[in-house]
Amino acid sequence: MRHLLGTEGLDVDTATAVLDTADELKRTLLGREVRKLPTLRGRTVVTLFYENSTRTRVSFEIAGKWMSADVVNVSASSSSVGKGESLRDTALTLAAAGADCVVVRHPASGAAHRLACWLEDNGTSVVNAGDGTHEHPTQALLDAATLRERLGGLTGRRVAIVGDVLHSRVARSNVHLLTTLGAEVVLVAPPTLLPVGVGEWPVTVSHQLDAELPAVDAVMMLRVQAERMHGGFFPSAREYSISYGLSQARQRLLPEHAVVLHPGPMLRGMEIASSVADAASAAITEQVRNGVHVRMAVLYHLLAGDNTADAADAATAQRAHGGEA
């Protein structure tokens, strides 16, 4: 794997290999006081973020450091971007400075793909950490890892993705990945928050949340992305919550085993009730924990290994020798 730009086109073997590597890395680090593996010693990972982030940026930084990589954080607001430097020149500068991998978040859809093209001859890998409303592949991978952990597998499982699908790169990446891994996806949203052409996606579309909840194994609530909205997509926050918020009453409609997910940040009281977000059925904190291990696995496959067997052997060897960095 040279780059991770999206989950569209990611085959089941590659996706499963990354998830299996994440599981092995998680087991390797479990209970260890010093969480450090020497796997990426001598490698340099640069996070290049043109949009705000907490979970994604921090988890990539921790993932790199736990694998002994040198991690450099670059934000657009404090770089030469503020002086007018183009994305291409910034990328070439980072590659020339020795970056082995650039993790990029950008407001323009397709930015990560352009970056990968510009760096094709430099040997630098690119990870898409979210590009506009296009994709967010590592979020989908950590969601899949969490569902595998909670449900034991994804084949035949029914997952509802609820809310602002129109502006959600998380929803797009999850549709591609979950269906590839054998799950059935139902999108639940008002018509104004569904993208044009959604009928061609391999999903079921519904506008009635209450009707869908009793038959799902998991429900993923999406953040309402007000910063990307220019116009009235729903009458009010209160009316949105009444129709599409996951309240405590709606939680009771779910099967007992069903899992509640949210990519964060959450708008508590609108998208999801606090009592639901903090309930035992919610795996929101687990998503964050799994995000570190999934991003470790992604960096491993990009910079150190080509298959799960290699990763498992490396992690096992490190565990046997205490994992000293």
TrEMBL record:
Q: Which domain of life is it from?
A: Bacteria
- A biological process term (GO) from this entry: 'de novo' UMP biosynthetic process
Every copy of the Aspartate/ornithine carbamoyltransferase carbamoyl-P binding domain together lies at 2-149
* EC main group: transferase
| Keyword set, alphabetical order | Pyrimidine biosynthesis, Transferase
E.C. number, please?
A: 2.1.3.2
One GO term describing the cellular component: cytosol
- Which reaction equations make up its catalytic activity? carbamoyl phosphate + L-aspartate = N-carbamoyl-L-aspartate + phosphate + H(+)
Which Gene Ontology terms cover its molecular function? amino acid binding; aspartate carbamoyltransferase activity
Q: Does the keyword Membrane apply?
A: no
Q: Kindly name one Pfam family recorded for this protein.
A: OTCace_N
Binding residue positions for L-aspartate: 83, 169, 223
Q: In which pathway does it act?
A: Pyrimidine metabolism; UMP biosynthesis via de novo pathway; (S)-dihydroorotate from bicarbonate: step 2/3
Which intervals hold domain Aspartate/ornithine carbamoyltransferase Asp/Orn-binding? 156-302
Q: Which NCBIfam families match?
A: asp_carb_tr, PRK00856.1
Q: Which family does it belong to?
A: Belongs to the aspartate/ornithine carbamoyltransferase superfamily. ATCase family.
Report the function annotation for this chain: Catalyzes the condensation of carbamoyl phosphate and aspartate to form carbamoyl aspartate and inorganic phosphate, the committed step in the de novo pyrimidine nucleotide biosynthesis pathway.
Q: How does it assemble?
A: Heterododecamer (2C3:3R2) of six catalytic PyrB chains organized as two trimers (C3), and six regulatory PyrI chains organized as three dimers (R2).
Q: What is this protein called?
A: Aspartate carbamoyltransferase
Upper lineage is:
Bacteria, Bacillati, Actinomycetota, Actinomycetes, Pseudonocardiales
Gene name of this polypeptide: pyrB
